[in-house]
Write a structure and sequence with these properties.
Helices cover 25% and strands 14% of the residues. It has helices spanning 26-30, 56-86, 120-123, 151-158, 173-178, 286-302, 307-313; strands spanning 95-98, 104-105, 111-112, 127-130, 186-189, 195-198, 202-206, 215-219, 238-240, 251-256, 269-272. Strands 5-6-7-11 form a four-stranded antiparallel beta sheet, covered by helices on one side. A three-stranded antiparallel beta sheet has the order 8-10-9, with no helix packed on it. A two-stranded antiparallel ribbon has the order 1-4. The longest helix has 31 residues, at 56-86. It is globular and about 55 Å long.
């Protein structure tokens, strides 16, 4: 409302929903009858991050409550699109809609995230981009692999700003225009846990070969999500040489327990998404695993991974 007649403005709307607790308005809940009637002990608005132990009725109920929550989010997104219509912002305004992760609602026998392997339901996230310079692409889908690290360079390019040398992402304009790839594969995962790599066909989830080796955090800000590091955690702190991207600053090297939980115990997994998009059956193919491990190694080199990580991961 304030800036629609101006130029060179940026607005980020960050919503916590859809997220636990699945607080749902009555009108949205009514759209999903199975979200209305429920008798049971499980919370219907905050599933545990753990294996599914509830019965089918409970699982179905939670899924419907979540669907009602997504419906609410969809309606509020519609209000943003209505403003784009009202002020004809489609002529010169880029719109990006994305999220940070997915959520398991009983798939693979799990609730939530972080405590299980990064299946597609968690890692393969929605992304919608409208670029007013490429109106002819409206309504089209793209197959090229992109990641959230590409969003910042995309915005800088749109505003004619230089992309900083330490950014590893790429602007998405060529993907939007003609589905021209900006990478062969994507590497992702949790700190101290499995390392995943996906290309157009396969996803490989790699478990550490030496999981008993310690995990370190390299930081100038020793904080957890909800607390500072304790004196005990800092008792063996080291000051180490800079990484290539730390602007010459040395860092604290702190041995730490994995905050997310190490999923190495699940073992390594290879899936052929063209034949098994739900990742229900692992496949064995040593040649593909070798190629995926090589890609993980390339990515670690490119990102100046700490030396001990190569031995822990085993690539």
């Amino acid at each position: 409302e304030k800036n629609h007649e101006c130029d060179n403005w940026f607005l980020q709307i960050e919503t916590f929903d859809p997220h636990e607790p699945f607080y749902v308005l009555a009108d949205d809940r009514k759209k999903y009858p199975k979200a209305m009637e429920f008798v049971g002990d499980a919370q219907d608005d905050w599933p545990p991050y753990s294996p599914v132990e509830e019965d089918e009725d409970t699982v179905e109920h939670v899924r419907n409550v979540y669907a009602a929550l997504v419906t609410k989010c969809d309606r509020y997104l519609g209000q943003v699109l209505d403003l784009m219509d009202r002020y004809n912002l489609w002529e010169d305004t880029m719109l990006i809609v994305n999220t940070d992760h997915g959520f398991l609602l009983g798939e693979h026998g799990w609730w939530g995230k972080t405590t299980m392997p990064l299946y597609q339901e968690i890692a393969h996230i929605p992304l919608f981009v409208y670029d007013p310079r490429l109106k002819e692409t409206c309504g089209t889908r793209r197959k090229a692999i992109v990641q959230t690290v590409d969003l910042a360079p995309t915005l800088l390019e749109f505003f004619n700003q230089p992309i900083t040398k330490d950014m590893t992402g790429k602007p998405l304009n060529q993907v939007i225009a003609k589905d021209e790839p900006i990478r062969e594969y994507a590497v992702y995962g949790y700190h101290g846990s499995q390392v995943c790599v996906s290309d157009e066909r396969y996803t490989y989830i790699h478990s550490a070969k030496n999981p008993d080796m310690p995990v370190y955090e390299y930081t100038l800000m020793p904080t957890h999500m909800r607390a500072m590091f304790s004196p005990e955690e800092l008792s063996n702190i080291e000051l180490v040489e800079p990484f290539s991207f730390t602007k010459g600053c040395k860092l604290m090297k702190i041995e730490t327990k994995n905050r997310m939980g190490d999923t190495t115990s699940f073992g390594s997994m290879l899936f052929d998404l063209s034949e098994d998009s739900n990742q229900e059956s692992r496949i064995n193919n040593e040649a593909i695993v070798t190629m995926m491990c090589k890609r993980i190694h390339e990515y670690m080199v490119e990102n100046d991974a700490p030396k001990e990580l190569y031995e822990r991961v085993g690539v």
